[in-house]
Design brief:
By secondary structure, this protein is an alpha+beta fold. It contains 5 helices and 12 strands. The protein has a domain of 135 residues: Pleckstrin-homology domain (PH domain)/Phosphotyrosine-binding domain (PTB) (PH-domain like). A hairpin with a 5-residue loop joins strand 11 and strand 12. Helix 2 packs across helix 5. The longest helix has 19 residues. It starts with a helix and ends with a strand.
Amino acid sequence: QTSEMLQKICVRNLVRKYCRGLTAERKVQLQQKVVTSEVFSGKKEGYLESLSQPFLDTRLKENDLNPKVLQLIRGENIKYVTPVIKYDRNGFKARERLLVLTQSSAYVVEMAKIKQKIEYSTLKGISTSNLSDGIVVIHVPEDNKQKGDVILQCGHVFETVTKLCILANKQSLVKVVKGSLRFRVGSGKEGTMVFAVGPEPQVFKDKTGQLTVV
């Protein structure tokens, strides 16, 4: 009995020593990784490989943004910026964009223009597939301010989704789907995205008009 008590005390002291020795940066990393685990563990391919890859604070610095964009979002604290591919909701044409996450909103940016702003308070959900693609769909409310859901392809999907759901405080709204998902095009219309496995990654509009992600 004494031995068991001493073992517990020893473990408690080791844990205490480890926790007190953590730097602020390391603590943030672990907190983010815990959220990633809760959202993706056992659900999405590539999760295990992502464990050893530290998240960056941001993929692009604030100075990399166009001054006009900085002027438009002045007063908001920029937290994370990453390059993304945005797919049009109708023709699914791929376009290079930036995803800018501030303390209160997500922005889809084209050079010196803000193409879409999503306030976290209005965010309806975040969807991604269970496969190894980097597709992320940001679901927005049906109102005149929004053109429809945002379809993005991210190079660092675990990092991007984790940052987004933490900033938005919408971890419970992240869904990892299998097979397909529905997204809002606008004006009450919906589209379908289909996920499949193939010899090489690709994203295209199939003969039925659906967006297919391989």
